[in-house]
Every structure is written in C-alpha cells, then in structure tokens.
Amino acid sequence: MAGIVIGVDSSTQSTKALAVDTATGEVLGEGRAAHTVTGSGGARESDPRQWWQALQDAVAGTGCAGRAEALAIGGQQHGLVALDADGVPVHPALLWNDTRSAGQAAALVDELGREDWARRTGSVPNASFTVAKWAWLRDHGLTGRVAAVRLPHEYLTERLTGRPAAERSDASGTGWWGEHGWDRGVLDLVGLDEALLPPLAEPGTAAGETTGPFGGLRPGIPVALGAGDNAAAALGLGLGGGTGAVHGQPALSLGTSGTVYAVTRGRPADPTGTVAGFAAAHGDWLPLACTLNCTLAVDRFATLLGRDRQAVEPGGEAVVLPFLDGERTPALPHAAGLVHGLRHDTTPGQLLQAAYDGAAYALLAALDLVLAAGSETAGDAPLLLIGGGARGRAWQDTVRRLSGRAVQVPAAGELVALGAAAQAAGLLTGEHPAEVARRWDTAAGPVLDPVEKDEAAAARIAAVLAAGAPLLGA
Ligand SMILES: Nc1ncnc2c1ncn2[C@@H]1O[C@H](COP(=O)(O)OP(=O)(O)O)[C@@H](O)[C@H]1O
Ligand SMILES: O=C(CO)[C@@H](O)[C@H](O)COP(=O)(O)O
Questions:
Q1: pLDDT value for 2
Q2: What are the pLDDT digits (tens) for 236-272?
Q3: Cβ within 8 Å of residue 296, ≥6 positions away
Q4: CA gap 453, 405 in Å, rounded
Q5: How far apart are CA 2 and CA 224, in angstroms?
Q6: pLDDT per residue over 54-64, tens digit each?
Q7: Which ligand sits closest to the CA of 387?
Q8: Which-ligand-closest: CA of 54?
Q9: Whose CB has fewer CB within 10 Å in the chain, the N or C terminal residue?
C-alpha cells in the first residue's frame, strides 16, 4: 500500500499542502502560499484565481508533486465564486466572513421562518451562508453574467479535473442543500437556476482526474471530492464512521474563524441558528458553531497593546468582546469590539487575557448546544484543540480555564490538509477516510488535565454581553 497522496487546505489566509505517505501517515513534504483578503467595513473578498495559483505553488512546495498518486482539497466554507461562461470570475469571491449579506440573511429567515430553514437545510442562514451572498449579489445587480456558482474547493477541484462536482459537507453550508439534494424551493426563492450548480457526487467517489501538470502533478491522477475545511479537519482527526468509529467527541479550532463541532449520527436542526447543521463529508453530521473573531482579533489586541501574543496576565475584572469583524456567534453582524470594566490597576496583560476570554467564551458556550444538536456525546473524551491558535500556550490555558475540560492538542499541525490527504488515500485503498486518519494516529498529542472552570469570568462576559446589547447592534 505504499505511495504518496497530497492533501490541501485552501483556507482564508493561505493554502497549505501536505505530501503524506499513504501507508504510515508520515508527512514527507509541506508547501504553503499566502492569500490576500481585501475589503473594509463588512466586506471580505478574495480573487479565486489567486487561490488557484496558491494551490499550484503549495503543491509544488511539497517537493513530492510528481510522485503523488491522488489528491484532495479541503476549503474555507460558504464563499461564493461566481463565474461567467468562460469560467472567469465575474466578481471577487464573497468570503464566509463578509457580513454585508446580513440584511439578505435576515430577510430570508423572515420569508421561510427559522423552523422551516432548520427542518429543510439543517441550519438557519446567517450572513456567512452562500444563499445570503447570492441574494446580496442579486440585490446589487451583479448576477447577470453568472453562468456557474461554485464554493471555493469546488472551484479549485474543477480547475484540476475540468469537471464540476459538489459534495455534501460544503453543500450543507450553502443554505440551498437539504438531506436529499438541492432544495428547489430555496433556489427559486433567491432566483438561482439549479443548472448553475455542480452535480452532487456520492461520498467516496472521485471528482475526476488531473488534466494537466499543475504544480508538478502528473496528469491523470485521481482527485477526490474534497470537503469543507471543518469537515476535512474532522476526517483528519479520525472523527466519524468506519472501523473503530468515533462519534460525539468535540473539537475546537482556533484559526481565522473559531469553530466548535462534533461528528454525530444524529442530524442537527437548531432553529435558534446558533448551531449550523452541516453534513460530515462521508456520511454522518457535523453540528458546528462558528465565530468570526478568533486568532486575528486576539492578535490585533496584542498589537494594539504592544505585547507579544503570549504575554497575558491573570486577574482584574476587564471584559473584552473582540467583535472587530462584527460577530456570528452570538448573532451580532454589525457589532464592533467593546471593552468594559477598566480600572487604574488594570494591566495590559490582563486586558490581553480578557481578549482571549472574550473570543473563547462564545465558542465554549456553544459547545453543549453543538452536542445536544447532534444528540451524541463521547463520555468525558478530551476536547481536541486544533488550528493555528492551538499552538499557543495562552490559547490552551484560556480554553482549559473557561471550559473546565481536559484538552488534547494533536501534535500534527495541519488537520484540514491531513483530512484531505486521508480522503485521497481512501480513494486509493477503499477505506473510510476517518479510518485512514485513525490508522495514521493523527490526533495523537499531549492531553492537558482539566482545571477548575472560571465561572466568574464567564459570568462577567455574559453580563456585559447582555447589558451591552444596544451598543452591539442587537
Ligand atoms: N503560537 C501561536 N499562538 C497563537 N496563535 C497562533 C500561533 N501560531 C499561529 N497562530 C495564529 O493562527 C492563525 C492561523 O491559523 P490557521 O488555522 O492556519 O488559520 P486559517 O486556517 O483560518 O487560515 C493566525 O491568525 C495566527 O495568529
Ligand atoms: O464559516 C466557517 C464555518 O462555518 C469557517 O470555519 C470557514 O470555513 C473558514 O475557515 P478558516 O479559514 O478559518 O479555516
């Protein structure tokens, strides 16, 4: 079973590619290329052609492209790639954290009602969902020349294979996918012709084969369907079905977005909208809550305070709600950051700690809702901590203190790319990708013991959130 597969994470800030030994899971090479995100106020856009170049650069950077036998891509969710008849973007992609579509999301929720959205699509759409972004493009007269609508990883996979293909994990973040396929009622509601969407493919099948020597890949190697980045990370952690299946163990990802999720057999349908009812990539479900302000917001506070990001100090009563980009959880798309409770003796290190607390609080508050939505918990299994922020001691300590849970930090750094690699390997071996990741032991890493939960800090944040509602645009 020897051979090499490549897994790609095309995320908000960069593309990362790993070349992985199919038999052992050893990472043989790594490539990376940065993305540019433009926009101020609520706007967040990227040119999809830049992702395509970054994909080729990152794949070439692994040093193993010519020996790869299969490849798959995990991509940032929700983004709207609108292409003309020649496959050229008619507009930069509207990203998951672009909040200009908040008004369209609210109008769509009013039209069908929260219960109906949750029942049909598993989720109540917010500004992140593709359906709200399409409505925003429509309302701004920008849909006229659109001949194809793609999600970020669909766009990239299609450029590799020349064939359009959609899959359930990322489709479930559009707002126009239901358990049994595209929801024609929702498509009619927003005036989107189903012919503009790629056909849905069955999990475990190939999207196609490479049609050129992209980034040094051999033409003709199979390309797996790919997945939304959170679903890919779940595969990369070995969460989900197959032999030795793992269901209900929570994971928390600290990156541009903060996410908390579990793979469950129960289909989530939360009418409050806090938990998105995503599909996992190969069957199962992925109840998930997501924040817009995570590592970038905390890093911004560190910069404002002139401190290293790890230079936190305990104590004090300051509360920071770091909603620099507006916020999705809680649903405050028009909010700005809020600092409360400053005293003469508040130190910069305490203020920085308060920013970490404010960013982690909403995710941890949503954790129980996530598990309840999927009707599954894996006993007292540790909380898996991943994403760039998981490398930071201050993040690890904050999550332990505000959750009161044991936390496991996988030694493997790039779980999305590893999950994509496991999917590519599964295409070759016939295994479930989560089973491949378990065989590779990708989640292995130190388990940090639980510490007493800091109920006082959580109560302070909850009180400021409630009292600050008018300032936060609630
Ligand atoms: N040691 C660290 N401590 C805290 N944050 C870190 C550390 N290393 C990286 N990061 C943060 O991780 C983020 C990138 O995480 P990543 O999961 O790669 O993001 P994304 O996939 O959303 O592009 C950066 O915003 C950076 O601030
Ligand atoms: O919107 C969501 C999930 O619903 C985000 O998690 C995006 O998928 C972006 O991911 P990163 O770039 O932060 O990894």
A1: 62
A2: 999 999 999 999 999 999 999 999 999 999 999 999 9
A3: 256, 324, 325
A4: 8
A5: 18
A6: 999 999 999 99
A7: 1
A8: 1
A9: N
